[in-house]
Amino acid sequence: MTLLHTISGSEKTSYVALINNYLAEDQFLKRYLPIDPSTNDLFEIVKDGVLLCKLINVAVPGTTDERAINTKRVLNPWERNENLTLSLISAKAIGCTVVNIGVYMLFQLLVLFSFQEYFGPVTSFLIVFSVFCSMPKYKEVKPINLIFY
After folding, report:
1. Residue 96 above 50 pLDDT?
2. Domains of the chain from N-terminus onward
3. Which DSSP string do the residues of 42-105 spell out, in sequence order?
C-alpha cells in the first residue's frame, strides 16, 4: 500500500514561516532566507541537508556540530550525502525513531518533492521538525516516531 500526501499551500506556508522565523539569524542560511511561500524554493533548499541539520539544532541546540555540516555554495554528491547522513544521525540522537530510511532514500524523496507538488513520507520528516520547533524552549524532548511508508 502506498500512501501519497499532497502538500497544501497552507502546509507549505506554515513550514516556510517556521523556518523563516527560527532560522532568520543563521549566518549560512541568510542567503536563502526568507523563503517565499508562494514558490517551491523550500523544496530546493532542503535537498543538500543543511536546512535539516540546522532545524535539528533549533529543536535541540548543540545536537549537530555545525563544523561538520558542509556549507559550500555548491556541494558535490558526497558532501550532500554527508549532510543527509548527519541529519539522520542527529534526528536519531534527539529521540526520533527513523524506520526504514537511509541517506539514499532520503535524497531520492527530497529530489522527488523538489520536482513535484506531491510526496509521501517526507511530510513526516518535516512534521517532526515542526513539532520540535514549536516546543517552548525545548526543555523536555520526547521521542517522536518517524515512520516512512
Report:
1. yes
2. 5-147 (1.10.418.10)
3. HHHHGGGSHHHHHHHHHHSTTSS-GGGS---SS--HHHHHHHHHHHHHHHHHTTEEEES--HHH
